[in-house]
Specification:
By secondary structure, the chain is α/β, with parallel strands linked by helices. 28% of the residues lie in helices and 35% in strands. A 5-stranded parallel sheet has the order 4-3-7-8-9, with helices on both faces. It is globular.
Length: 176
C-alpha cells in the first residue's frame, strides 16, 4: 500500500516554507490505518518489549494501538501539569525554545524494555528526549517506531545508537 497517497500535504503550515504531513486522512481510512499499525507491529517481532511509550497527542494514537496488539502496557508522556501523580521530567531544546516532557514516576521500572512510538520524526530532538527520560528512570529503549520519517532533516544522526524504524520516508520537503 502506498501510504504517501493517504497522507495529506499542507503547504506553509504551521509556517511559510513548511509542508505539514497531515495523518488525519490516513487515520480516517480504516484499511490504511490497520495496514500501518500491522507494519509497525511486524517491526516488533522478536523484540522483548515490556511497554510502549507515546507522547501526546498523535503518539497516543499509534502507541496505544501498538501496545494493545503486542499485549503490553502503554505509558503516556505528557506536557507539564497534565499528569495527576508524582512525575519524572526531562527538559529539552526546541528550534525556538525549550520544552518539558513528564511521565509518572511509577510508569517505568529499572530494566523495563520500552518501545517508543510516534507518528513522525523530524529532527529527532523530541524522540531523543523521550529516550533520555526512559533511561533516566532506569528503562532500556529497545527501539523507536515511527509512521513517518523526514529523512531530509537527518533524525537518525541524533538517534544514532538506537534501533529506528519508520514506515514512510520523505527524502525532501517537496516530496509528495
Amino acid at each position: 500500500m502506498d501510504l504517501k497517497q493517504k497522507i495529506r500535504n499542507i503547504p506553509d503550515f504551521p509556517q511559510k516554507g513548511v509542508v505539514f504531513r497531515d495523518i488525519t486522512t490516513l487515520l480516517r481510512d480504516g484499511e490504511a490505518f490497520r495496514y500501518s499499525v500491522d507494519k509497525m507491529v511486524e517491526y516488533c517481532n522478536g523484540k522483548k518489549i515490556d511497554a510502549v511509550l507515546g507522547a501526546e497527542a498523535r503518539g497516543f494514537i499509534f502507541g496505544a494501538v501498538v501496545a494493545y496488539k503486542l499485549g503490553v502496557g502503554f505509558i503516556p508522556v505528557r506536557k507539564p501539569g497534565k499528569l495527576p501523580c508524582k512525575t519524572s521530567e526531562i527538559s529539552y531544546e526546541l528550534e525556538y525554545g525549550k520544552n518539558i516532557l513528564q511521565v509518572h514516576v511509577d510508569a517505568i521500572k529499572k530494566g523495563d524494555r520500552i518501545l517508543i512510538v510516534d507518528d513522525l520524526v523530524a529532527t529527532g530532538g523530541t524522540a531523543k528526549a523521550k529516550a533520555r527520560l526512559v533511561e533516566k528512570m532506569g528503562g532500556i529503549v529497545v527501539g523507536f517506531c515511527f509512521l513517518i520519517e523526514l529523512e531530509y532533516l537527518n533524525p537518525r544522526k541524533i538517534l544514532e545508537g538506537y534501533d529506528v524504524y519508520s514506515l514512510v520516508k520523505y527524502k525532501s520537503e517537496q516530496e509528495r
